[in-house]
Design a protein that fits this description.
Strand content of chain B: over 45%
Shape of chain B: globular
Distance between the termini of chain B: 36 Å
Largest interface: A-B, 20 and 22 residues
Shape of chain A: globular
Radius of gyration of chain A: 14 Å
Number of strands of chain B: 11
Largest sheet of chain A: 6 strands, mixed
Structural class of chain B: mainly beta
Helix content of chain A: under 10%
Number of helices of chain B: 0
Strand content of chain A: over 45%
Order of helices and strands of chain B: EEEEEEEEEEE
Oligomer: heterodimer
Number of helices of chain A: 0
Number of strands of chain A: 12
Low-confidence stretches of chain B: none
Low-confidence stretches of chain A: none
Order of helices and strands of chain A: EEEEEEEEEEEE
Mean pLDDT of chain B: 94
Chain lengths: 116, 116
Protein backbone atom coordinates (compact mmCIF):
# COMPACT_ATOMS: atom_id res chain seq x y z
CA UNK A 1 0.00 0.00 0.00
CA UNK A 2 1.11 3.53 -0.71
CA UNK A 3 1.09 5.79 2.30
CA UNK A 4 2.00 9.32 3.27
CA UNK A 5 2.77 10.19 6.88
CA UNK A 6 2.76 13.66 8.37
CA UNK A 7 3.80 13.25 11.99
CA UNK A 8 3.09 16.81 13.10
CA UNK A 9 -0.66 17.42 13.46
CA UNK A 10 -0.12 21.05 14.48
CA UNK A 11 2.70 23.54 14.40
CA UNK A 12 3.12 27.16 15.29
CA UNK A 13 5.66 29.71 14.09
CA UNK A 14 6.16 33.39 14.64
CA UNK A 15 5.93 35.79 11.78
CA UNK A 16 9.22 36.17 9.86
CA UNK A 17 10.60 32.95 11.32
CA UNK A 18 11.33 29.70 9.50
CA UNK A 19 9.42 26.47 9.96
CA UNK A 20 9.84 22.97 8.55
CA UNK A 21 6.98 20.54 8.03
CA UNK A 22 7.88 16.88 7.79
CA UNK A 23 6.55 14.22 5.46
CA UNK A 24 7.53 10.64 4.80
CA UNK A 25 6.04 8.29 2.28
CA UNK A 26 6.15 4.69 1.30
CA UNK A 27 5.91 3.42 -2.24
CA UNK A 28 7.45 0.72 -4.36
CA UNK A 29 7.11 2.85 -7.47
CA UNK A 30 10.17 4.39 -9.08
CA UNK A 31 8.32 7.06 -11.03
CA UNK A 32 6.33 9.49 -8.94
CA UNK A 33 5.90 13.15 -8.16
CA UNK A 34 5.66 14.79 -4.76
CA UNK A 35 3.58 17.79 -3.80
CA UNK A 36 2.78 20.13 -0.99
CA UNK A 37 -0.67 21.69 -1.05
CA UNK A 38 -2.02 24.27 1.40
CA UNK A 39 -5.64 24.57 2.43
CA UNK A 40 -6.43 27.89 4.12
CA UNK A 41 -9.69 28.49 6.02
CA UNK A 42 -11.44 29.07 2.68
CA UNK A 43 -10.77 25.34 2.04
CA UNK A 44 -9.42 26.01 -1.46
CA UNK A 45 -6.56 23.60 -2.14
CA UNK A 46 -3.57 25.55 -3.42
CA UNK A 47 -0.46 24.01 -4.95
CA UNK A 48 2.62 25.16 -3.05
CA UNK A 49 5.43 23.18 -4.63
CA UNK A 50 6.10 20.02 -6.62
CA UNK A 51 9.09 17.72 -7.06
CA UNK A 52 9.78 15.02 -9.61
CA UNK A 53 11.28 11.96 -7.93
CA UNK A 54 13.90 11.55 -10.64
CA UNK A 55 15.31 15.02 -10.00
CA UNK A 56 17.99 15.28 -7.33
CA UNK A 57 17.80 19.04 -7.06
CA UNK A 58 15.40 20.25 -4.42
CA UNK A 59 12.50 22.36 -5.71
CA UNK A 60 12.17 25.98 -4.63
CA UNK A 61 9.30 28.43 -5.01
CA UNK A 62 10.07 31.82 -3.50
CA UNK A 63 9.88 31.36 0.30
CA UNK A 64 9.03 27.67 0.00
CA UNK A 65 11.62 24.96 -0.51
CA UNK A 66 11.78 21.22 -0.02
CA UNK A 67 14.34 18.80 1.31
CA UNK A 68 13.86 15.68 -0.78
CA UNK A 69 15.68 12.61 0.50
CA UNK A 70 14.71 9.84 -1.90
CA UNK A 71 16.50 6.99 -0.15
CA UNK A 72 14.89 7.92 3.14
CA UNK A 73 11.54 8.60 1.42
CA UNK A 74 11.37 11.96 3.09
CA UNK A 75 9.96 15.18 1.63
CA UNK A 76 9.94 18.08 4.09
CA UNK A 77 8.72 21.61 3.38
CA UNK A 78 10.58 24.67 4.64
CA UNK A 79 8.78 27.97 4.83
CA UNK A 80 11.09 30.95 5.26
CA UNK A 81 10.06 34.40 6.45
CA UNK A 82 6.66 33.09 7.54
CA UNK A 83 3.70 35.37 6.91
CA UNK A 84 0.27 35.49 8.51
CA UNK A 85 -1.19 34.40 5.19
CA UNK A 86 0.73 31.13 5.47
CA UNK A 87 -1.68 30.03 8.20
CA UNK A 88 -3.35 26.95 6.72
CA UNK A 89 -3.52 23.20 6.68
CA UNK A 90 -0.62 21.76 4.70
CA UNK A 91 -0.95 18.42 2.94
CA UNK A 92 1.90 16.37 1.57
CA UNK A 93 0.96 14.16 -1.37
CA UNK A 94 2.53 11.94 -3.96
CA UNK A 95 1.35 11.07 -7.41
CA UNK A 96 1.80 7.63 -8.87
CA UNK A 97 1.02 6.32 -12.32
CA UNK A 98 -0.67 3.23 -13.66
CA UNK A 99 -0.31 3.27 -17.40
CA UNK A 100 -1.59 6.67 -18.46
CA UNK A 101 -3.66 7.13 -15.28
CA UNK A 102 -2.41 9.03 -12.27
CA UNK A 103 -3.48 9.18 -8.65
CA UNK A 104 -2.71 11.45 -5.72
CA UNK A 105 -2.33 10.04 -2.22
CA UNK A 106 -2.54 12.58 0.60
CA UNK A 107 -1.13 12.67 4.10
CA UNK A 108 -3.27 13.58 7.09
CA UNK A 109 -2.09 17.17 7.10
CA UNK A 110 -0.28 19.59 9.40
CA UNK A 111 -2.11 22.62 10.71
CA UNK A 112 0.25 25.60 10.70
CA UNK A 113 -0.49 28.71 12.70
CA UNK A 114 1.59 31.80 12.07
CA UNK A 115 1.52 34.22 15.01
CA UNK A 116 2.57 37.81 15.51
CA UNK B 1 -1.64 28.11 -12.18
CA UNK B 2 -4.64 26.72 -13.99
CA UNK B 3 -8.14 27.54 -12.75
CA UNK B 4 -10.82 25.05 -11.81
CA UNK B 5 -14.29 26.15 -10.78
CA UNK B 6 -17.00 24.31 -8.92
CA UNK B 7 -20.69 25.02 -8.68
CA UNK B 8 -22.52 25.35 -6.41
CA UNK B 9 -20.23 26.36 -3.57
CA UNK B 10 -22.76 25.17 -1.03
CA UNK B 11 -26.09 23.42 -1.14
CA UNK B 12 -28.72 22.38 1.36
CA UNK B 13 -31.20 19.73 0.34
CA UNK B 14 -33.83 17.46 1.82
CA UNK B 15 -33.17 13.80 2.41
CA UNK B 16 -34.10 11.72 -0.60
CA UNK B 17 -33.40 14.35 -3.23
CA UNK B 18 -30.53 14.35 -5.73
CA UNK B 19 -27.86 17.00 -5.99
CA UNK B 20 -25.60 17.75 -8.95
CA UNK B 21 -22.19 19.37 -8.56
CA UNK B 22 -20.30 20.75 -11.55
CA UNK B 23 -16.55 20.94 -11.96
CA UNK B 24 -15.06 22.99 -14.80
CA UNK B 25 -11.51 23.57 -15.97
CA UNK B 26 -11.64 27.18 -17.12
CA UNK B 27 -8.43 27.68 -19.03
CA UNK B 28 -7.30 24.22 -20.03
CA UNK B 29 -8.73 20.95 -21.25
CA UNK B 30 -8.78 18.08 -18.83
CA UNK B 31 -9.35 14.54 -20.04
CA UNK B 32 -9.20 13.43 -16.42
CA UNK B 33 -10.85 14.96 -13.39
CA UNK B 34 -11.05 13.65 -9.85
CA UNK B 35 -13.68 13.81 -7.14
CA UNK B 36 -12.69 13.88 -3.48
CA UNK B 37 -14.58 13.97 -0.23
CA UNK B 38 -13.28 15.69 2.87
CA UNK B 39 -14.71 15.31 6.36
CA UNK B 40 -14.06 18.05 8.95
CA UNK B 41 -10.42 18.23 10.02
CA UNK B 42 -9.50 15.26 7.87
CA UNK B 43 -7.59 14.71 4.69
CA UNK B 44 -8.96 14.34 1.18
CA UNK B 45 -10.32 10.95 0.22
CA UNK B 46 -10.41 10.09 -3.46
CA UNK B 47 -13.86 8.92 -4.49
CA UNK B 48 -13.47 8.44 -8.23
CA UNK B 49 -11.55 9.32 -11.34
CA UNK B 50 -13.62 10.90 -14.09
CA UNK B 51 -12.50 10.19 -17.65
CA UNK B 52 -13.77 12.20 -20.60
CA UNK B 53 -15.84 10.05 -22.92
CA UNK B 54 -15.69 6.92 -20.81
CA UNK B 55 -16.89 5.48 -17.52
CA UNK B 56 -15.55 6.77 -14.26
CA UNK B 57 -13.28 4.64 -12.10
CA UNK B 58 -14.50 4.39 -8.51
CA UNK B 59 -12.38 3.74 -5.44
CA UNK B 60 -13.11 0.75 -3.30
CA UNK B 61 -16.09 1.29 -1.05
CA UNK B 62 -17.61 4.12 -3.09
CA UNK B 63 -21.07 3.29 -4.46
CA UNK B 64 -21.17 4.12 -8.14
CA UNK B 65 -24.97 4.12 -8.21
CA UNK B 66 -25.00 6.59 -5.35
CA UNK B 67 -22.39 8.95 -6.77
CA UNK B 68 -22.99 9.30 -10.50
CA UNK B 69 -20.19 10.86 -12.50
CA UNK B 70 -20.43 12.22 -16.01
CA UNK B 71 -17.51 13.70 -17.95
CA UNK B 72 -19.14 14.72 -21.20
CA UNK B 73 -16.62 17.31 -22.35
CA UNK B 74 -12.96 18.18 -21.93
CA UNK B 75 -13.81 20.96 -19.50
CA UNK B 76 -16.76 19.65 -17.47
CA UNK B 77 -17.33 16.81 -15.05
CA UNK B 78 -20.41 16.43 -12.89
CA UNK B 79 -21.03 14.52 -9.69
CA UNK B 80 -24.62 13.68 -8.81
CA UNK B 81 -25.37 12.52 -5.31
CA UNK B 82 -28.53 10.46 -5.75
CA UNK B 83 -31.15 10.04 -3.03
CA UNK B 84 -29.00 12.01 -0.62
CA UNK B 85 -29.09 11.21 3.09
CA UNK B 86 -27.66 13.08 6.07
CA UNK B 87 -24.58 10.85 6.09
CA UNK B 88 -23.75 12.20 2.61
CA UNK B 89 -23.26 15.66 4.12
CA UNK B 90 -19.67 16.57 3.49
CA UNK B 91 -17.27 18.80 1.58
CA UNK B 92 -16.78 17.63 -2.00
CA UNK B 93 -13.76 18.79 -3.96
CA UNK B 94 -12.92 18.21 -7.59
CA UNK B 95 -9.58 18.51 -9.33
CA UNK B 96 -8.45 18.49 -12.92
CA UNK B 97 -5.36 16.80 -14.24
CA UNK B 98 -2.88 19.14 -15.89
CA UNK B 99 -0.49 17.41 -18.24
CA UNK B 100 0.93 20.46 -20.01
CA UNK B 101 4.57 19.94 -19.15
CA UNK B 102 4.48 19.48 -15.38
CA UNK B 103 2.00 16.84 -14.33
CA UNK B 104 -0.17 18.36 -11.58
CA UNK B 105 -3.71 18.39 -10.22
CA UNK B 106 -5.45 21.74 -9.82
CA UNK B 107 -8.36 21.90 -7.42
CA UNK B 108 -11.74 23.53 -7.43
CA UNK B 109 -12.91 25.56 -4.42
CA UNK B 110 -15.14 22.78 -3.14
CA UNK B 111 -18.85 22.29 -2.52
CA UNK B 112 -20.32 22.03 0.93
CA UNK B 113 -23.33 19.71 0.97
CA UNK B 114 -25.77 19.57 3.87
CA UNK B 115 -28.55 17.03 3.71
CA UNK B 116 -31.39 17.61 6.15
Amino acid sequence: AQTVTQSQPEMSVQEAETVTLSCTYDTSESNYYLFWYKQPPSRQMILVIRQEAYKQQNATENRFSVNFQKAAKSFSLKISDSQLGDTAMYFCAFMTFTGTASKLTFGTGTRLQVTL
Amino acid sequence: GAVVSQHPSWVICKSGTSVKIECRSLDFQATTMFWYRQFPKQSLMLMATSNEGSKATYEQGVEKDKFLINHASLTLSTLTVTSAHPEDSSFYICSARWTGGQETQYFGPGTRLLVL
